[in-house]
Design brief:
single chain, alpha/beta, Purple Acid Phosphatase, chain A, domain 2, seven-stranded mixed β-sheet, six-stranded mixed β-sheet, 15 strands, disordered N terminus
């Protein structure tokens, strides 16, 4: 039987056991994830998520839209989000894990100099229902992990914290050629870091000291996209290269998931080891871009999706290999796009 390998609350253990018995019989595991959910907007996609019968829901960040330094306001926003009927049904369906991004961190595009980061961490972990026995409660930042499944069919979810330790980004304004519309972009921080020394060491150990068949690395911000003007790992090129080096050196089968962008897309690079690395971006549970524009992404596979969406990762287990089907899904059972990967054991 599949199980979440952390000390979960009894209700989660019971619910998960009931769900996972069916999944084992079908030789399949389904994981759902999403990001950018504004508690003030309609929560329309939860029934569609539940219809996929996920064994786990992963929050990719911007789990609420706070952008505040007021603790009372933050608590009320989390309470509103958590009391949503649709989300309550998610909690009855499967366990939840995840990380934060900037808006639930409290500061748009915020980093390590946000003064409320330690105070706000508590409310984020409580919203995610991460047990007090989890080591995340005892170290700076919100990075955490869990293992789903058992035996040869284990999946490890690694939730990174791309906020707490992240160095400064400098925003500059400009007018693109041929237009008077003022826009902004970020200057490259050539020496800046994203994860911090302690979290880098933790990430390497999480990869090295696990025999999981598949690793899902939850990044919140996009790890592979290079060309757009918004926040992304490549704003810190040294840190991004270090991330790719760490993942490649592990020789593990890895899928990155990300959010933040209010769009969905697949990005892909081939690591020096020969393994493919996808960054599956799913963002916009409650809202997406107010207008559509063309956005370059040299690593994009398929098309950009500018619709409210969530992500599905379906793993079909076989003795000698396993197949991963990644779907960008929307309302009324719509599949916007799909990618598959087959990994040899």
């Amino acid at each position: 039987m599949f199980a979440v390998m952390r000390k979960c609350k009894p209700l989660f253990i019971l619910v998960f056991a009931l769900c996972s018995t069916h999944l084992v019989a079908q030789k399949q595991t389904v994981i759902a994830f999403g990001s950018c959910s504004n508690q003030r907007k309609p929560q329309e996609l939860w029934p569609d998520v539940i219809n996929q019968k996920p064994a786990l829901w992963i929050w990719g960040g911007d789990n609420i839209y706070a952008d505040t330094g007021d603790t009372t306001e933050l608590k009320a926003m989390y309470a509103k989000q958590k009391s949503d009927v649709g989300y309550q049904n998610i909690l009855k369906t499967c366990p939840v894990t995840g990380t934060w991004d900037d808006h639930d961190y409290g500061m748009n595009d915020g980093g390590r100099f946000w003064p409320h980061r330690d105070t706000f961490k508590k409310f984020s972990l409580e919203f995610l229902d991460i047990p007090k026995s989890n080591p995340v409660w005892n170290h700076p930042g919100i990075y955490n992990s869990l293992v789903l499944g058992e035996g040869k069919n284990k999946i490890k979810i690694i939730n990174l914290d791309t906020r707490y330790f992240r160095d400064t980004l400098v925003r500059v304004h400009y007018k693109p050629e041929g237009t008077e519309k003022l826009q902004y972009k970020y200057e490259v921080n050539t020496t800046g870091d994203v994860l911090g020394e302690v979290q880098w060491k933790w990430l390497e150990e999480e990869l090295r000291n696990s025999d999981a068949a598949l690793f899902i690395v939850n990044s919140s911000i996009q790890a592979l996209a290079e060309d757009h003007r918004f926040e992304k790992w490549v704003n810190f090129p040294q840190a991004r290269q270090h991330l790719l080096d760490v993942l490649d050196a592990s020789k593990k089968k890895i899928v990155i998931i990300s959010g933040d962008r209010h769009i969905a897309e697949f990005s892909k690079v081939d690591l020096p080891s020969g393994l493919p690395l996808y960054d599956f971006t799913s963002s916009g549970l409650t809202h997406t871009w107010p207008e559509k524009w063309v956005e370059a992404n040299r690593h994009r596979v398929g098309n950009i999706v500018i619709e409210k969406n969530f992500g599905i990762i379906r793993i079909d287990w076989h003795r000698k290999d396993f197949k991963i089907t990644m779907q960008i899904r929307g309302k009324n059972n719509q599949v916007f796009q799909e990618q598959t990967i087959t990994f040899k054991r």
